[in-house]
Specification:
- 33% of the residues lie in helices and 32% in strands.
- It is elongated and about 55 Å long.
- It has 2 domains: 2-51, no CATH class; 63-148, SH3 type barrels.
- It has helices at 2-17, 21-37, 40-51, 157-160, 165-171, and strands spanning 63-72, 75-89, 96-103, 106-113, 119-129, 149-151.
Length: 172
Amino acid sequence: MKKAVEAHREAVVRTLKGRSESLGKELKEATKEDAAKTSEKAVVDAAIAAFSKPVPDFKIGDTVDVSVRIIEGDKERIQVFTGVVIAMRGAGAGAAFTVRRIVNNEGVERTFPLHNPKIAAIEVVRGGRVRRAKLYYLRKRVGKATRLRDLKREGTVQAASGASGESAAAQS
């Protein structure tokens, strides 16, 4: 078991070392300690903690902008994929989420690993109020039937603005 953990640790360090030499050294030291006393999962979680950015708090039903790094030849650009989060699965290193959008009257779904280094940013555009853990039923719907109820979060511009009670009641 220790050999497998050590081999996996070396693979993680080799993969991530190219991004930052200084962080690679810190990761190597941290993962040696972790590998000696914990399992393979802890090594992967340590790698994610060292290299991942904070992930925004988003849920199923939210509309998100996922900025993805696209490498074409020797050039790199950012492409934004905007859509509704219809599924989330896993936790820790294996966490992933699925985003669905409509392009040319065709549904397009894309599953992103949450801690993928190719994801530059995740931005919540608007919240959606749903009562399901998976929104696969949206695949059968077209047009206005795919709309979700808007979730008014505390601390957002709409909730924080001085909206009168009448307009708030009219929106509900």
